[in-house]
């Protein structure tokens, strides 16, 4: 008799565990379905992607190249394009379009991209830099009046290319990098130098002919102690 009661109690406990497990399974399944439904409802479907303009709901965008650390969440699906907000900008002023054919970058039609002023961000090797010393160094570099440059041949040699770092800058309130005017900065013959794209000559099979300008020793010291050139 005791054995039967023990088995009965064991079966009851087992049934309770099964019911609890099933209830929890149903709960999480409903939670997941609700999340997917809410997410689907929050995705904007209204819009169009045209050759010269993108419309997302009531907002128009134009195509504009810029540098970002990457996409975040999807906010729209328009004409077989997925539209993503980017890490640096929650205002959706700058957005990323993706499809099986590639990527496109867009900015709000009425946003005026600053082309000068105070440097607020620097991108190099896919990384965003906001270190105050480095930003101040770039502010100094861009406001310096350069007179005599030095002709220099930038070889395609791997060791030569490794010494050059290519930067994209953002100004004032712009959350991303938009200025590609700097070809690169490097240390050559114990001095730090800069080459602007405007001073980059014709490329041949071996590399570029260029003109570099020497950077101030103070800026050089800042670059020297940074990790940017550690490879």
List the helices and strands in order: HEEEEEEEEEHEHEEEEEH
- The amount of beta strand, in percent, is 35-45%
Helix content: 25-40%
Rg, alpha carbons: 28 Å
State the separation between the terminal residues, measured CA to CA: 78 Å
Side by side, the strands of the main sheet go 1-2-3-7-6-5-4
Put simply, the count of helices is 4
Largest β sheet strand count, sense and barrel closure: 7 strands, antiparallel
Q: Write down how many β-strands occur, each being a DSSP E stretch of 2 or more residues.
A: 15
Approximate shape: elongated
Mean pLDDT figure: 86
Integer count of domains: 3
Judged by helices, strands and strand pairing, the structural class is alpha+beta
Give the low-confidence spans: 33-41
Report on the structure:
By secondary structure, the chain is of the alpha+beta class. It has three domains: 1-42; 47-108, no CATH class; 119-225, no CATH class. Helices cover 29% and strands 36% of the residues. The strands form three sheets. Strands 1-2-3-7-6-5-4 form a seven-stranded antiparallel sheet, with no helix packed on it. Strands 10, 12, 13, 14 and 15 form a five-stranded antiparallel sheet that branches. Helix 2 runs antiparallel to helix 4 (217-225). It is elongated and about 75 Å long. The chain crosses the membrane at residues 20-38. Keywords: Membrane, Transmembrane, Transmembrane helix.
């Amino acid at each position: 008799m005791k054995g039967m009661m023990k088995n009965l109690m064991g079966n009851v406990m087992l049934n309770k565990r099964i019911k609890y497990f099933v209830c929890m399974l149903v709960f999480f399944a409903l939670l997941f379905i609700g999340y997917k439904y809410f997410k689907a409802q929050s995705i904007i479907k209204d819009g169009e992607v045209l050759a010269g303009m993108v419309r997302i709901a009531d907002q128009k965008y134009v195509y504009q190249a810029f540098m970002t650390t990457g996409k975040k969440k999807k906010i729209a699906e328009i004409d077989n394009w997925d539209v993503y907000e980017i890490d640096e900008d929650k205002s959706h002023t700058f957005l990323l379009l993706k499809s099986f054919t590639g990527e496109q970058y867009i900015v709000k039609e009425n946003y005026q991209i600053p082309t000068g002023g105070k440097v607020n961000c620097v991108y190099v090797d896919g990384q965003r830099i906001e270190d105050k010393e480095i930003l101040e160094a770039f502010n100094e570099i861009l406001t310096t009046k350069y007179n005599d440059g030095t002709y220099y041949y930038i070889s395609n040699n791997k060791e030569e290319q490794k010494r050059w770092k290519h930067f994209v800058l953002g100004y004032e309130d712009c959350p991303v990098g938009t200025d590609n005017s700097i070809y690169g900065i490097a240390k050559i013959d114990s001095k730090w130098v800069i080459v602007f794209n405007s001073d980059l000559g014709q490329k041949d099979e071996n590399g570029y002919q260029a003109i570099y300008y020497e950077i101030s020793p103070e800026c050089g010291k800042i670059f020297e102690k940074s990790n940017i050139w550690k490879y």
